[in-house]
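Let's study a protein:

___
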Amino acid sequence: MPAATSLTAMESLLCAALRGTSGVWRQLEDPVDQASFLEATVRHRVRSLLAWRLRDRGEWQEWPHALRTPLHASERAEAAIEVARRTDLTIVLGALGAAGIPVLLLKGAAFAYALYPEPWLRPRQDTDLLIAPDAVAEAGQVLERAGYQPVRAVRGRLVTHQRIFARHDRTGLRHDCDLHWKPANPVAVADLLSFRELFDASQVVSIGDVLVARTPQNVHALLLACLHRATHHHDSDDLLWLYDIHLLAERLTETDVAALVDLSQRSGAGAVCARGLRLARERFETRLPETIFPSLEAAPAARPALPAAFLKPGVRKADLLMADLGVLPWRGRLRLLREHLFPPAEWMLSDPRGGRRLLLPALYLWRVLRGAGGWFRPL
């Protein structure tokens, strides 16, 4: 297990303010410190959340005006964007619902409505949806009829388990919808939880006054949140993602804790869950029973633990590829390598820079040579 990422002085103050420590503003009277603190709030996407927390505990007016002004501006901006986000979400869920396609709301959008006092306190760039694998083609057609267009991206049976669709509203604002048929992209973790398992245990959340959506129940959501930050974002110490984990963990009952340990043991994800929970507790003093960590970190009985590459400092794309190759049979390994090196010809020729089919071999060679170095640089 790698050592916890160290916090800067400003990040430590930010965590203290978010968890409710009083008087943090007294250490932010210097303009240079104020600028550094505000930079941290932007980098970790928690400006609106911080402003709400300060108001909620009656400390807002005590903070320096130079800090309150940008925090308040962020509140107003996020609240305005949320109106557009909710409209977009209504279109997407309404279209899929009318087509009879069961769908789960994932990640930021799910957390915004299920965990936070106001959805605009949880910034997000896209809407993540999970559907059954056999519904992908139909769901894509539904989204296109609703005004979305597929975004150019590499496709393959193993290299990715999602498609991105985008729509521009009348104001020009772009809305991205990530349509997943497995809850994670890396092959090593893609099948830990199936759509059916997640959907059958899901919960209902309200989206505004008239719309509802289904989201994973808390134990599943916590496991997925820990997997997301480790496997998709390379053990990131992003405070917003860790605050999601903090809020989910604070909701766990004794029964939930036992279920999380059991699920982590069965999936081999115990170390990844323990890592996310430790970081959340160190930053936000998350209330957790001490026994949870040795239980999560014990060697799984049912299947091998997830590859250590996901928690490796300085991880490279090559390390993650090796982790994926390690869980596949030989035929699957060859397919994954082929999908990485030689994506479909239609995708290669759809590059806006253009390309003729006769030049396809040269395009593939250029792709391999241009991207080779990136596989061996720390992410």
About this structure: Residues 217-306 form one domain. The radius of gyration is 22 Å. The chain has a mean pLDDT of 91. Residues 58 and 250 are 23 Å apart (CA to CA).
